[in-house]
Write a structure and sequence with these properties.
Length: 323
């Protein structure tokens, strides 16, 4: 049995998936508890979508075992699909149908009993703040409203588990916050949610996360526990100009003076073994290179810093700079 713990709603052991010579998922193990928001976090190409599609029994695994709600992923895939909602990155709303008609269409697909449909649709429209837009065609909606409608369509049959693949990609920050408020409400109502995201601020909102990179899970735990894995000390550095900031990054990397140097917007994060000594020596060193430091202080590691650290430990490069 891949899952002998009833509290674990989703369980996977040794999942493998290749596409030709590319190993997209490389022996992944994970477990998701009842009533939690679990995040698959990592950059593009990390294997998040492939993992989620296998867990939702949309894509067969080359090897490994899956259990969802106690059902076996190989022999009971259709039973699993009856009890889950799956929202891919590009969810297929029908643009020429109205909001209400899209809900009715998905109620038909999920075989929601007709005696329940009207009430369920009214509840979902109100729940997603779409009641006053029910007459609009889906193509007329904003990006955030389309995402809420897509989620409502996946909730029409009251699934116990939701798989959401990068649901807020391409959505403005306000709509992203609204979407996450909805996810928190769903969790409070007892839903179990797995969400994939490349955004570290969204990872912070999950109960637990799995950092994925090159088809493997680097670590799994609460956001706080994951940040505790960071080893070393961090300094935040700002320079007089953005050009100087980039010059500082290039110089420090070229000379290999620090464990790592990453650029985050208008600042550098410097990984060092001794923050006090580095802070004492670095401004003068950079000044001799024509780089004027305006701000330098110790900071705690973020999830993004920890991800970069774990990738470096695994022998790769995170490529997570926010420039």
């Amino acid at each position: 049995m891949v899952n002998d713990n009833p509290a674990m709603i989703i369980a996977a052991r040794g999942l493998v998936k290749s596409f030709g010579p590319i190993r997209a998922v490389d022996h992944i193990d994970l477990q998701v508890e009842k009533g939690e928001i679990f995040g698959l976090v990592g950059p593009d190409g990390a294997g998040k979508t492939t993992t989620m599609r296998m867990l939702a029994t949309i894509l067969p695994a080359d090897a490994g075992a899956i259990s969802v709600l106690g059902y076996d992923g190989r022999t009971e895939a259709e039973r699993i699909k009856e009890h889950i909602g799956y929202m891919p990155q590009r969810f297929s709303l029908y643009g020429d149908l109205t909001v209400a008609e899209n809900l009715e269409f998905y109620a038909e697909i999920y075989e929601v009993p007709r005696r329940l449909r009207e009430q369920r649709q009214k509840e979902l429209l109100a729940w997603a703040n779409l009641s006053q837009h029910s007459y609009k065609q889906a193509d007329q909606l904003s990006g955030g409203m389309k995402q809420k409608l897509a989620l409502a369509c996946n909730l029409i049959h009251e699934p116990a588990v939701l798989f959401l693949d990068e649901p807020s990609t391409g959505v403005d920050p306000v709509a992203r916050r609204d979407f996450w408020r909805i996810l928190f409400r769903l969790r409070e109502e007892g839903a179990t949610i797995m969400v994939s995201t490349p955004y570290m601020d969204e990872a912070e909102r999950c109960d637990r996360i799995a950092f994925t990179y090159n088809g493997r899970i680097l670590t799994c735990g609460t956001p706080a526990a994951v940040k505790n894995l960071f080893r070393g000390q961090l300094l935040l550095l700002r320079a007089e100009t953005i050009a100087m900031l980039h010059a500082a990054r290039d110089y420090l990397r070229r000379e290999q003076l620090l464990a790592d140097v990453l650029i985050y917007g208008d600042a550098l994060h410097l990984v060092t073994d001794d923050a006090l000594e580095t802070a004492r020596l670095l401004p003068g060193l950079l000044e001799r290179q024509g780089i004027r430091v305006t701000h330098l202080q110790p900071i705690p590691p973020s999830l993004e810093d920890t991800f970069a650290y774990l990738v470096r430990q695994a022998g790769g490069f995170a490529g997570r700079e926010s420039s």
